[in-house]
């Protein structure tokens, strides 16, 4: 299997699949494909895993595209402006990502709901249910805005505005902390809590979140009076 990510800040990924190779994505995720690709739609792991995916921002059903001949092309586009990031998942190497980050993956990767701790879930800005990628293979994630990759040493902590955390290795601890100072809380513009990530491990930060972008656009949408 070969792939090419293209499109700048409105990215897509095009796969070149050999006979028997497959990619799965959420229902309705395909943009275009050649005619020797077969689509199979199912819950990909059963009802309970499907429901877990729904809570993590994905669809109940998944669509698998399998090549029935060599050199078949499949294009899947991101639904948000940003970047498509590829993670090579292996046994013992897992990635946690924000809700709704999953774009597509090879069949050996399992997408699961990941439940955060109470403090991180209430105040970390990403909610209780995130996404976890396990198994073996490649997973493609749609992340918002421009992405910066950082590596945290053991015990090193980074404080991040809620919504700017895109993904992190499972060795990293995700939590939240309260903003210090009464005036900072009232007038600092960052809210009451900030997200914290503590190493060791790699993290991926995004310059915007789709929810923040939507909130900026809403005031400019005409409304009937």
Description of the molecule:
- The protein is mainly beta and 225 residues long.
- 13% of the residues lie in helices and 48% in strands.
- It has helices at residues 47-55, 118-123, 182-187, 210-217; strands spanning 2-6, 12-17, 22-26, 30-33, 37-42, 62-67, 72-77, 82-89, 95-97, 102-105, 109-115, 129-135, 137-144, 147-152, 157-160, 165-169, 173-178, 193-198, 201-206.
- The strands form 4 sheets. Strands 5-6-3-10-13-8 form a 6-stranded antiparallel β-sheet, with no helix packed on it. Strands 11-12-9-16-19-14 form a 6-stranded antiparallel β-sheet.
- The longest helix has 9 residues, at 47-55.
- It is globular, with a radius of gyration of 19 Å.
- The chain starts with a strand and ends in an 8-residue tail after the last helix.
Task: Spell out the blueprint of helices and strands.
Blueprint: E1 2-6, E2 12-17, E3 22-26, E4 30-33, E5 37-42, H1 47-55, E6 62-67, E7 72-77, E8 82-89, E9 95-97, E10 102-105, E11 109-115, H2 118-123, E12 129-135, E13 137-144, E14 147-152, E15 157-160, E16 165-169, E17 173-178, H3 182-187, E18 193-198, E19 201-206, H4 210-217
Antiparallel strand pairs: 1-2, 2-7, 3-6, 3-10, 4-7, 5-6, 8-13, 9-12, 9-16, 10-13, 11-12, 14-19, 15-18, 16-19, 17-18
